[in-house]
Amino acid sequence: MSSLAHGKNTSVVEVTHISSHGVWLLSHSKELFMSYADFPWFKNQAVNAILNVEELSRGHFYWPDIDVDLTEEIIEHPERFPLKATIT
Question: Choosing a second label site near 58 at 20 to 30 A (CA), which of 42, 64, 70, 71?
Answer without folding.
Answer: 42
